[in-house]
Amino acid sequence: MMTNKLTTDLQNLDAILTTVKQQGIDYLNNVEERSTASSGEVEIIRDLNVTGIGAIEALKQFNERFEPVMVASSGPRYWGFVTGGTTPAAIAGDWLASTYDQNTQSAKGNGDVSAIIELEAIQLLLSLFNLPKDYFGGFVTGATLSNFTCLAVARQWIGKQMGKDFAREGLSGKVNVLSATPHSSSIKSLSMLGLGSGNVIQVNVLPGNREALDVTDLERKIQALNDEPFILISSAGTVNTVDFDDFEAINHLKLKYNFWWHIDAAFGGFAACSPKYSHLVKGWENADSITVDCHKWLNVPYESAVFFVKEKHQLLQVATFQNSNAAYLGNPMENFSYLNFLPENSRRLKALPAWFTLTSYGKDGYQEIVESNVETALKFADFINENPNFELLAPVRLNTVCFSLTNDNLVTTFLDKLNASGKVFMTPTFYNGKKGIRAAFVNCRTKNEDVDLVTAIMSKILTEL
């Protein structure tokens, strides 16, 4: 039996959603003015109201207690981490994903067939990245789950080389994993998969202020394995300096040695969208698996990333993820369901925001976003280079500026003051033995005027130190 509050809300759904829509519009139209720094504290309510207060009153409570501490993380000057914004089309798709509330698994049958949208969105992404159509893909919540999914299939592949079925029998023996600068999400995935976060065989990076792996050292490490199969985790855009491994050279090694090649291209893969920068990912189409994070440079709401795994590995993927206790599924290859290809058994229609934004803006739109963000990154780097109080810690290879103060004892104080201004947010880092600051440009709203505003604030803070 429905409560009176729920009955009333169902009858007034139009008014509720109209009110929320207007609040969303107001937020987005004024996001440039919203603070990037949170202020104030919220006391947590620990006991649930017995009768409830209804949606409109709940909205009022949200606006009084929580809304004031919401920061402009989707705004044009949130340069911390690698935080993308949201395109209008992506927001429309996200709202509809919530409204239709599909559990996206199947592409045919009498029930929910919304996986058709996901399968199409994957094809559109492959087209955007100029990747071949021999990849199978799907949506997960972020780069961590994408890396997890890809490396889980890699684990099953390793087992097959040893004559074992790790998914059924459990992991046995040491699995060799090679990498130079793996992202923390890959290390976390190795931990969750039982491969061991501390078992990575470290490959040297190239000399000369690089984070890319040294292919010569990689081959030495491979030869030391004496023909044992292994997993290689390579980078298409490291976090600090957006450095790229040499994929063509790695592909030559793949012709000589037996290994699973995974590329973490969480945001760097978007270099493929621009003829100016696509050379950075040349050869990546030969990898066994690729991670791309959509809630970064695709500018869709959070909890959106994709995995790409070569179709030739589908049986290994199904062996890893099949919902084997559900007898009604039948043959998972004949009765396709994402249920058997990735971790979640219940999943939102995460592909819809991506489908909307890809369809709305096309290849030209994303080329423009990528090139505009790189342009603003280079403009910001020019300011760093021209001001004797700052120094670049690494060349700007794409969209991230890694820098420090010439007096690095002042880095923490400077960054605290900068972020406290509420006009911009950047994150601290540590690179080549020095404290540093990272500014990542991945928001479609960011313009040159934002760089001018931020650099003016930075200059003013210098005078106060």
Quick description:
With 465 residues, the protein is an alpha/beta fold. It has helices spanning 4-11, 13-29, 55-65, 88-100, 115-128, 143-161, 166-169, 184-192, 215-224, 247-254, 294-297, 314-321, 351-386, 411-420, 448-464, and strands at 135-140, 176-179, 200-202, 230-235, 259-264, 289-293, 305-310, 390-392, 400-405, 427-431, 434-440.
Describe this structure in words.
There is one protein chain. This protein is an alpha/beta fold. The protein has 15 helices and eleven strands. A seven-stranded mixed sheet has the order 1-7-6-5-4-2-3, with helices on both faces. Strands 8-9-11-10 form a four-stranded antiparallel sheet. The longest helix is centred in the last third of the chain and has 36 residues, at 351-386. It starts with a helix and ends with a helix. The mean pLDDT is 95.
Q: Whole-number average pLDDT?
A: 95
State the distance separating the first and last CA atoms: 64 Å
Q: Can you count the beta strands? A: 11
Which stretches are poorly predicted, pLDDT < 50 over at least 5 residues? none
Largest sheet: 7 strands, mixed
Rg computed from alpha carbons, rounded to a whole number of angstroms: 24 Å
Count of discrete alpha- or pi-helical segments spanning 4 or more residues: 15
Shape: globular
Strand content: 5-15%
Q: What would you call the quaternary organization?
A: single chain
Name the helix and strand elements from N-terminus to C-terminus, one letter apiece. Answer: HHHHHEHHEHEHEHEEHEHHEEHEEH
Strand order of the largest sheet: 1-7-6-5-4-2-3
Q: Which structural category do the helix and sheet elements fall into?
A: alpha/beta
Helix amount, in percent? 40-55%
